[in-house]
Amino acid sequence: MKQITIILSIIVGLLTFTTTYAQTKKDRDQYEIQVDGLGCPFCAYGLEKKFKEFKGIKDIAIDIETGDFSFTYPAKQPLTMETVLAQVVKSGYTPNDSKITRYDGSIETNEKSEEIALQDVTSARLYVNGMCGMCKARIEKATTAITGVASAVWDVDTKMLSVKYDPNKTSESAIEKAAAQVGHDTKGTRATDEAYDNLHACCKYKRAQ
Asked: Across the beta sheet with 94-101, what order do the strands follow?
């Protein structure tokens, strides 16, 4: 009889835990971001530390090899896609494909749906300072995110950004500012010291005085 009582107690305990866990998950949003530039455990630690500024974050998982980063956050105080992507950039990395699965089942992504007619495209080459492949991913991500930019390719050796954009929707100045916002000086716009300091150690290029 005593054994039956113990078994029943264990079952009740497991059911209570499962119900509580399911309820907790139900009240949280799931965030998934593919991050460029995570080369080592120290990189992952820096990313995790930056996101822990968001009180209430849980279930953090980072795969260094693939760059897959995920976590959950309370649905009652949801984070926007823009806030999440900006936090990745502040950590010194580049966000790529991202998805948010809200507690109600709705899904948000950062896919760019805009298409620009070829006849509206203008080409330009802009100087953007940087050092490595991580810089390349960051610069291209920041500049292609601008409304009106069809493509942006940065060359590590020449430091030149080749862009195609719709002049009716954006400008070379706006593109330079986007690069500067993520820490990269351009000919016309200098990044803030804070943005530069947030760059990964291998991305710290020599700045003009």
From this structure: 58-63, 68-74, 28-36, 94-101, 107-109
Measured at the CA of 72, the angle between CA 66 and CA 77, to 5 degrees, comes to 140
Tokens for 87, please give them. Answer: 């936090």
CATH number at residue 55: 3.30.70.100
Cβ atoms of 31 and 73 closer than 8 Å: yes
Phi, psi for residue 182 in degrees, rounded to 5: -100, 15
pLDDT in tens, 90-129: 888 888 889 999 988 899 988 765 545 545 789 999 999 9
pTM given for the model: 0.56
Query: CA-CA distance, 42 to 15, in Å (whole number)?
Result: 39
Which of 52, 79, 109 is the endpoint of a domain? 109
The more confidently predicted of residues 100 and 37 is 100
Residue 83 banded pLDDT, cuts 50, 70, 90? very high
